[in-house]
Specification:
- The protein is of the alpha+beta class.
- It has 3 domains: 35 residues, no CATH class; 61 residues; 162 residues, Umud Fragment, subunit A (Ribbon).
- It is elongated and about 85 Å long.
- Strand 3 and strand 4 form a beta hairpin.
- The longest helix is centred in the C-terminal third of the chain and has 32 residues.
- Strands 5, 6, 7, 8, 13, 14, 15 and 16 form an 8-stranded antiparallel sheet that branches. Strands 11-10-9-12 form a 4-stranded antiparallel sheet, with no helix packed on it.
């Protein structure tokens, strides 16, 4: 149906119409017909908000399924993570971690609280310290460890042990204070921790704000047979989805007031 045009005073016509079309006729007889773009904009802003909610809530829900927060209990992993730091650990089983990974585990022989240590040996590895330059030895090969609190000395404690199958040899980055596998060589597991005790693999620091960020993957063990540390998990993709969701929600919600303001100024 065509829009209806009514006569106004002084021979001019005013705009009337239906749906998304309107017409305006002036006293000179010219007529302009245009679509109402506001309706399309409203629909697009609604889609943006809905999509933003899906990304934002979906990102958080996925993160809750894949990751779990833990508090670092001691200074044994400094400077990589510090006591009191809140870290995010990807929920993985112990047989999915590799040399160089930082893991959260709970072993009743080590205490009642979850511990955070670095994997330097897996089942079947021979781990020893130290070579002539103070470096850790894994299967006869020296390992440079740039993450250590004291890069010049891999351990003040000399040791040479073979990791049992289905177990992990775990040490702290702050070797001078860490109570770890090196000091438990006389127990039934020769200082190693069963893979079943692993709760997750640390990927990021979530608190305090000054230390928020991902925990970088080390390449220290890459040259060994069997490879080194695990690849990063999906955390960055989850954060990207959450941020994109926030942007879409704010952008979509801001459309209506901004559009109305522009129209008022134009009128």
């Amino acid at each position: 149906m065509l829009p209806r045009v009514q006569r106004a005073d002084h021979g001019a016509y005013r705009r009337v119409g239906f749906g998304s079309m309107s017409a305006t006729r002036t006293s000179t007889g010219s007529e302009t017909i245009r679509g109402d773009r506001g309706g399309t904009g409203q629909r697009l802003s609604g889609i943006a908000v809905a999509l933003g909610c899906v990304l934002f809530l979906g990102g958080f829900a996925w993160a809750a399924v894949v990751y779990r927060p833990y508090t670092v209990p001691t200074s044994s992993m400094e400077p990589t993570v510090r006591p009191g730091d809140k870290v995010l650990a990807q929920k993985v089983s112990g047989d999915q971690v590799h040399r160089g990974d930082i893991v959260v585990f709970k072993d009743k022989q080590w205490g009642d609280l979850p511990e955070v240590k670095r994997v330097v040996g897996v089942g079947g590895d021979t781990v020893a310290c130290c070579d002539a330059h103070g470096r850790l030895m894994v299967n006869g090969k020296a390992v440079d460890e740039p993450y250590l609190a004291d890069p010049g000395q891999a351990s003040g404690t000399k040791f040479d042990t073979k990791v049992p199958a289905g177990a992990l040899f775990l040490v702290g980055d702050n070797r001078a204070v860490s109570q770890d596998s090196r000091l438990r060589l006389d127990d039934s597991q020769q200082g190693a921790v069963p893979v079943s005790d692993v709760r997750g693999r640390v990927e990021a620091t979530a608190w305090p704000l000054s230390r928020v960020g991902t925990v970088g993957r080390t390449s220290a063990f890459d040259a060994l047979t069997g490879g080194g540390a695990s690849a990063q998990g999906p955390l960055r993709w989850l954060l990207a989805a959450i941020v994109a969701g926030v942007v879409l929600i704010l952008g979509g919600a801001a459309y209506t007031p901004l559009s109305n303001r522009v129209r008022r100024r134009a009128g």
